[in-house]
Amino acid sequence: MSSPPAVPRGRRRGPSKGDRREQAILNTARELLARKPLAEITIDELAAGAEISRSSFYFYFDSKLAVVIALLHGLAGELDADAGPWLDGTGPDEPALRRSLAALAAIWQTHGRLLAGALAAAPGCPPIGEWRARLRTAHVTRLAARIERDRAAGLAPDGPAPHVLAGMIDDLRTAAFAGADDPRRLVGDLVTVELRMLYGDLRVPHSEG
Amino acid sequence: MSSPPAVPRGRRRGPSKGDRREQAILNTARELLARKPLAEITIDELAAGAEISRSSFYFYFDSKLAVVIALLHGLAGELDADAGPWLDGTGPDEPALRRSLAALAAIWQTHGRLLAGALAAAPGCPPIGEWRARLRTAHVTRLAARIERDRAAGLAPDGPAPHVLAGMIDDLRTAAFAGADDPRRLVGDLVTVELRMLYGDLRVPHSEG
DNA sequence: CGAAAAACTCGACAGCGCGTCGAGTCCGTC
DNA sequence: GACGGACTCGACGCGCTGTCGAGTTTTTCG
After folding, report:
1. Mean pLDDT for chain B?
2. A74-86 exposure pattern, b = at least 16 Cβ within 10 A, e = fewer
C-alpha cells in the first residue's frame, strides 16, 4: 500500500535502483506541479520524467493519486510546524498566531499546486479525503480546546460552539491560501481577521445611535 | 454558444420537440445531481435520461460542462436574492444579514451538489471560472463599498483593505456552505462570525499580565 | 560459480468517456 | 412534392487509464 516491496537489505548498500526510480517519479511530480495544476499532469509524463515506460510506473504506484498521497505524507509534518505555541497558548497572542500563519503561508507558497489539487480531488478520492479530514480534525480539535480554555478564563466572548468556530477558521485559511497569488501577503490580514473571529467583541458602538 | 438553434417561431406554437428535449436534459441533470456528485455524471446518463442517444446530446449542448453552465445561469438570479437590504445598508444590521444568509443557505440546501461541482470544476473550465469570478466580484464589490461606508462613518473598525476583507467573507461562506450537511444550521453562527469580522473590536484586555 | 528468486521492465491489450463526422429521418413551408 | 432546417444516430478516432503475461536484470544463497 505504501512502498512496493519490502527490501531485505542484508548489508550496507545504497538505495536500490527501484528506490531511485521511485524518487525520480516523486521528483518529476514535484517539478511538474511547479508548472501546471495536478489535473493536467498525466501518468505518461510522470513515467517519462523518471525515464521508465508508462506500465513500469504502475510497479511503483497504483495511480497518479497514489503519488499525490506520497507527496502529501511528506508534507503532513510541516503543516503544523510552528503552530504549537499558538494552539497551546491562551488569549489573543498576536505574535504567536502570526508566526503560525507565516509558517503555513510558506508551505502554501511552495506547495500550492499540490495542496490545491489534492483539495480538489479530495471528494471522490477516499484516501486523500481522509488525509484532509485527519489534518482538519487535528487542527480543529486543538483550536476548539483553546477556545474553550479562553472562554472559561473570560478571555474570549461566547459565540458559536468551539468546534464550529474552529472549523470556520480552518476553512477560511484553506480557502484564502488556495486562492491567493502570494499567500504570504495574506498573513497580516488573516491574523487580524482570525483574532476578531475569536476575540472580537461587538461592543455596541459607543456612539449612541 | 448559449442555446443550440434560433427557433423561428412564426406563430403561437408550443415548445418544439427540441425545446422539450433540452429541458429533459436539464431535468435529468438536476435529478442526477440530487443523487451523486457532478464528477460522477456522464454524458451517457444525461442522454439516456432524456431518451436520446449520446451523439444527439451534442446537438443540444457542447459538453457536460455546458449543461452545468445552463443550470448555473438559472441560479445566478437567486444567488443574491435578499442580499440587497444587507449589502446596501450600514452598520451591524444583524437581522438583515441573517435574512441574506438564510436565503443563501436555502439555495445551497437544494443545489449543493451543483454548486460544489461547479466550484471544483471552475479552475480548468474557463466559462465556469468566469461565472464564479463574476459572482464573487459582484458580491465583494458591494460588500467592500459597505465596509468603506461603515468605516468612514466610524461604525466599523479599521482593518484589512475592504476588498480583501470582503473576499475573505465570501470565501468563508462558500467554504462553510460547501462543506455543510445542513447549510441552514450554519446561518446563526455565520451571522455572528461575519459581524465579528466586520465590526469586532479587539478591546485590548487590560488584564495586567 | 551457478541456479532459483526477487526486483524490475515493457509491449500489447481492453476499457471508458469524450467529441466529431456524415449519412440519414422527420416535419413544416412554399 | 420538393426544399430546408430541425433533429437523430452509428461508427469512428482520440487520450487516458489500468491490467496481463512474458521478458530481462539483479540479488540471494547453496
Report:
1. 90
2. ebeeebbeebeeb
